[in-house]
Design brief:
401 residues, Beta-Lactamase, Helix Hairpins, Heat Shock Protein 90, 3 domains, five-stranded antiparallel β-sheet, five-stranded mixed β-sheet, 12 strands, 59% helix
């Protein structure tokens, strides 16, 4: 994000500085060319007065009238009196007498920023003053400057919008590329898990089929085929769990709504009590704790917690279930009095190894803890395993509310 901002600012500054430099040069060039036209016109009139043999006043008036540039002609007597002979175009402010006296000592003088003055010396210390206004040129320059400012603002705005769209497109491309990489990694993980988990039941099924083929009687053959069917059923369960893990890893939520976690815990606790009525269950749930999630995923996560208890602990082992919350998270703690684990992993990548070990004793696919961890990671939560005070396994799940 900082790089995008720096590049955008650099583009903005480059366009602004280059536009100002080019515009300033063009406007100055235009102003100079227009002033040169005025100067050339005045100089040509002075040259005509110098070369004429007729009355300079009459010639000056005529030249002013036919001039393409508005020219005012003033006649200055030897006493300094000023008489306006011709005003062609916008009136030009009268010159102060001090300025007139100063002009009388020169033949070619600029007066201020709005006038261009030329002086024609006449006999008897008399003078003709030809003055042309630069007001129109200065007005054009001001208009061009305003237009340049507007042009620069428009160009900068377009440049910023284009840069934003380009970077946004590149961001989307990067996002899509990242998503494709994630999906590819998920698929590779799925294929790896599938090949690992399905290898054992397939080997067992192959062995039972070979034994069934070589069985000396139908009774043993039927026994081997029944055991094969059990392994096939287990393999189907593994495939379902692997597909569920792949679904959990997808970027898009299938369904998102407010999920009442306490209600789901209550439902599964009642099922566990009905299946194992002799088990002592302690339940402590804060009501009305919800999380924004897919209800199917939350139900499957909690269902796996209870399924692990049901399969891997004795029916007489006590169970403690609690649901609390802090400012930003809900906390699920499930403890049991079963055998626990031989060791407790620090990272989620180790869960699968432990669950596979327990599945040999209690049945199931061995992917229960992996499914729980997959759901927790999907919603940016945390999942820890440790020794319970009841003697077995303690599972702590934290999810953002």
């Amino acid at each position: 994000m900082k790089l995008v901002l720096r590049v955008t600012v650099a583009i903005f500054l480059f366009l602004t500085i280059s536009s100002v430099a080019i515009g300033y040069f063009a406007i100055n060039k235009y102003q100079s060319s227009q002033i040169n036209l005025v100067d050339d016109s005045l100089n040509s009139k002075i040259k005509a007065l110098v070369t004429t043999k007729e009355d300079p006043l009459t010639v000056a008036q005529y030249l002013a009238q036919v001039s393409s540039i508005p020219v005012t002609v003033e006649y200055v007597t030897d006493t300094g009196m000023v008489t306006v002979l011709t005003v062609n175009g916008p009136p030009i402010p009268g010159l102060p007498s001090t300025a007139v006296q100063s002009l009388a000592r020169h033949t070619d003088i600029d007066f201020g920023t709005d006038l261009r003055i030329r002086v024609f010396e006449m006999p008897g210390n008399k003078r003709l003053i030809l003055a042309a206004s630069l007001t129109a040129i200065n007005s054009d320059v001001s208009t061009l400057t305003d237009e340049l400012i507007i042009f620069i603002l428009v160009v900068d705005l377009i440049a910023v919008l284009v840069a934003f769209l380009v970077f946004r497109r590149d961001g989307k491309i990067n996002e899509v590329s990242h998503l494709m990489a994630q999906q590819q990694a998920t698929m590779q993980k799925f294929l790896g898990d599938a090949s690992h988990e399905l290898r054992t039941p397939l080997t067992v099924i192959k062995g039972y089929v070979d034994l069934a083929r070589a069985a000396p009687d139908q009774k043993r053959q039927a026994s081997y085929l029944n055991k094969s069917a059990i392994e096939i059923f287990r393999m189907e369960s593994i495939i379902k769990d692997l597909l569920f893990l792949a679904e959990v890893g997808e970027a898009e939520n299938v369904k998102v709504e407010r999920v009442d976690v306490a209600a789901i815990l209550n439902d599964h606790e009642e099922v566990l009590k009905a299946l194992q009525p002799e088990r002592q269950i302690t339940l402590s749930l804060e009501p009305q704790i919800t999380v924004q999630a897919d209800p199917k995923l939350i139900d499957r996560m909690i269902g796996n917690l209870f399924s692990n208890i049901r399969r891997h602990t004795p029916v007489t082992a006590p169970v403690s279930i609690s649901l609390t919350r802090d400012d930003k998270h809900l906390i699920i703690i499930v403890e049991d009095g079963g055998p626990g684990l031989t060791e407790y992993p620090e990272k989620s990548r180790s869960f699968k190894r432990f669950s596979t070990q327990r599945s040999k004793e209690g049945g199931g696919t061995g992917l229960g803890l992996s499914i729980i961890n997959g759901v927790v990671e999907r919603y940016q939560g945390s999942f820890t395993l440790s020794r319970s005070e009841l003697g077995g396994l303690k599972v702590v799940i934290t999810l953002p509310i």
